[in-house]
Batch of 2 targets.
Target 1
Amino acid sequence: MKQIAVIGSGTMGNGIAHTFAQFNYKVNLIDINQPALDNAIQTITKNLDRQLAKGTLTEDHKAATLNNISSYTSIKDGVQSSDLIVEAATENVDLKLKIFKDLDEYAPAHAILASNTSSISITQIAAVTGRGDKVIGMHFMNPVPVMKLVEVIRGYATSDETTSIIMSLSQSLEKVPVEVNDYPGFVANRILMPMINEAIYTLYEGVAGVYEIDTVMKLGMAHPMGPLQLADFIGLDVCLAILKVLNDGFGNPKYAPCPLLVNMVAAGKKGAKTGEGFYKYISGSKDLTVSDKFKRS
């Protein structure tokens, strides 16, 4: 398995492409938007430069990594010779189903189709293809080049052979793969998102402020990042989408998203990527500043 295709050039897509390319896999990075692809290559280059500055990468390795990546604006052209395709598009069911229908049509018969979804059913995705045994989840963590975990999600029809290949492939990237079964939220987000949601409810109900909630969790529970800052980092729209999947999948009101989260997403305050969520984010600044909306007098 040497030829990889990655669908989507956003934060997760370019991180996945970076990681595979760094371990000498040939990668076709695919996005319908050429400026997005150009931005992704710039991001990968900056991240490689950061590794270079830390002494964890050589100039030759940087050049080889970038040389391993090709960009495409056509799914058909980008996947036709691939052994593995990793979909890393927006967390939207209809979009993912459309992509997998196209992948099933255009990818070689032997190719494994993987989704980086953080919550959407692999079984549902596999059902729109004619190769359910070769469809699997590869849920990487952000930032992909740094984080070690890969949640490997088996759909109802995923074969033992496909699972074994993906587990071994993840290890070749120096990741730690963990096999889980296909239920809403899998493991990571089934546990994480209710915690984040409860932190938002704690703010919403006036129990404590943004800084105070995050400080309790960092200093009291040894979390490297508070849940509200983490929600900003993930993207509040992504958190909302995952909570909706959990709520719909289990039919349990404990997964219902906090109204404050719903309103923030509707207002366009989606976290770090939009410059504001629970905190304000200023380009070039590492200061952690609570949003004016939540500042306490």
Target 2
Amino acid sequence: MTSSQARAVATALGLAAMLAGCNERKDPGFQGWVEADMIFVSPDESGRVTKLNVREGDEVKPGAPLYTVDDDLQQADLNQNNATLANAQQSYDRAASLSKTGSGTQATLDSAVSALRVAEARVNTSQTRLARRSGFAPIAGTIQQIYFREGEMVAAQRPVVSIMPPGNMKLRFFVPETELPKLAIGDEVKVTCDNCAADLTAKIYFIATTAEYTPPVIYSLDERNKLVYLIQARPSRPDSLRVGQPISVFFNARTPVADKR
């Protein structure tokens, strides 16, 4: 072999090695993103937000005060029902006294007892409505978003704030049918993202049983026009990720059960 031929062979081998390296580097993994199951805290009845106790990004513990909604109507309703309860109590005391002396009838006493119980129930309802004008954190987490500020009207059952518990963060990614035999519930996968730690992992807890077309959020042109299956996994370090962040997922292929047999 001449020296020129040797150089040609060496050049060809070098190009082949470079192409192989490029192919390895171009492996994008399975594309997905970070999501979270938020906890939404809302008032039972409409009203105007009078006070906000938190800001976006704050860490809260269970029972921490979040907001207060005006309670004028609820307070007035409680005052009215307290007055009704006082009258019902007087009627009951009079009927009970007359019943002991034999001057009153049993029917009158029964009616007074019934009216007293109804009045007590209405007071309890009013107290509950009044107490629920203030929102408290039902779980520990981070204030993700504030939807209504002080002075704004909020409709009934519309969230004022949302809380993101760390354990509710999840990764969503899609894989083609040919890759499903390599995955199982409980498998650990590697997770990468821009400027993230190199040791991020997640554990699969959900594998869809039905196929769907590629999701609307596409990060790779190669993934278009394919039927894929949704996979969801819980990250081992949720504090290292952010909601909406694009991620890539990698896993080691396992030998399918059919091949083992």
